[in-house]
Structures
1.
Amino acid sequence: MTTNLAIHRRDRAGERVDRFVVNHPPDRTLLDVLRALAAAPVTSDGRTVAPVVFEDACAGPLCGSCALSVDGWPAMACRVRVGDLGSQAVLGPLPGFPVVADLLVDRGAVGRALVDARAWLELDGWAGPEASPWSAQAAQHAQSAHACTACGACQGACPAMGSRSPYRGPLVMAAWELLDSTPTGRLQTGVRRALAASDGGIADCGHARVCRDVCPQRLPMGELLGSLSAGVMRGRE
Ligand code: SF4
Ligand code: FES
């Protein structure tokens, strides 16, 4: 299948668009295409150019590192198939993050936001007997949230986040909700609910639900954030 790719480039020479014609079976991933292009970076007008810079790791989709923009929408290169692209596509860096080069962005803010939000399980000193088992509903809830790769697309697109807003962002809200739905995570629900009820918590969400629309993993962000909000409200009763 032939696809015309227009790729936004950025390096020391400045910004430009390079065009490539690629030929791959429809079931190959965009990540396969980018890897092949890196090995032979020849443009559609026959110029050999510097290989396109991009990031990948798991080829999963598990790690979120290959997140980029396809025709203006966040996507994961290891998940998009050549057949989904059709005859032409425009690739760019993941919106909302500083561009390092070409398709590579600095997503360090994502990890910092999760660490700052204590989005982890604290098991030190805990022997286990207090943890109650999963309910079927909690298990289903967590399963959907587990699909999150922490790619950061939702953080990058969220209109409620910004320098003037304390909002920690939809990924943090979803991570809290995920942790609160696990048997061990529920042991520290109070800590996370206090954070969710404070400055930068769920009350600062603008309900735009852009996070739901841009999530490449199709997480039910509206449901997750709504559930967190309901949990915070119950804590106030
Ligand atoms: S919720 Fe979706 S968009 Fe946000 S970090 Fe997880 S996978 Fe990416
Ligand atoms: S390479 Fe890990 S999610 Fe795509």
Note: The mean pLDDT is 92.
2.
Amino acid sequence: MPLLLRAQLLLFLISLSSWMGLSRYIEDNEPSDGLYSLLSLEQKRESEDFIFRRPLRCLDMLATEGLFTFVASQPQLACAAFVIAEPSEVISLELFDVNIDCNAGDFIKMFDGWVLKGEKFPSNLDHPLPMHQRYTDYCSSTAAGASSRSAQNVAMVFFRIHSHDSGFTLNVKKLHNPFPCNIMSQSPEGSFTMVMPHQRRNCSFSIIYPVEIRLTELSLGQARSNELVPQRQVWSGCSGSGDYVELLGGNGVDTSHMSPVADLCFSHSGLAQMKIGCDNSVVRLVSSGNYINRVSFQYRLLERSELPKTQENSLDNFCSVE
Ligand SMILES: *[C@@H]1O[C@H](CO)[C@@H](O)[C@H](O)[C@H]1NC(C)=O
């Protein structure tokens, strides 16, 4: 893992923990180099046939495949492991060697997505499953051992364990996803192309950093190959077109609670560049299913000096830097 990515993952974990209000927990419970050693451990996974193993922490971030074992050294009542894969992957989670007491209030729940500050990604509107089907509760699942497969590149596990020496092992695997739709970026800089081929679906690419986003290609409303190409329409705003790209900014991860920063519905290239000074910046492709839509963009972290000067409580105009 390159040093930059490592530093970014660390930053990511720290920002996650502060989002969860758990930073004090980390400070109190981990040696000061704890997070660094965690990330360097992640680096040791080199070859494909080597099964990576390490202990799971009460607050953890997993970016590799492997076996992660949690053993409670004291009652741990609010633990969460965030799992993230590459944009073009989904995550398979499997529990085994589970030794917990469901009747005493212990639990392990897997979630198809992330929950941060009470908000969910992907939002209820964008995920293919209803909310209750996105949770897999080990204690109420009938099958021996529970497993879960995510619909996007993020998933998580919540757990509460009261008794000393109780625990479980989590097996994390990544599977290829040929049509990634909702995506959480692993880092505050990069580039991505989102393609939506003839599906009535909305897809969000979420970057939980303040970033500058530059659209490099936007192709909307292309007719099916066996249809006549329609005349380029000129819309006033994007509402009439059906298919468009939204840039959203906000301080939570639920895209349905975020504020629109810009709507883009014209197919041309090298068009938009925008700074979004929020905790979460999203590129969202809204598709009617009539067309093949394609949007490419690049993004980079905003410098401290580029962030909005006044941190108002009101969300109005909070996200637009310029
Ligand atoms: C996609 O988003 C648009 C605008 O928010 C909404 O009208 C439409 O119903 C959504 N489509 C799906 C499949 O959820």
Note: The two ends are 35 Å apart (CA to CA).
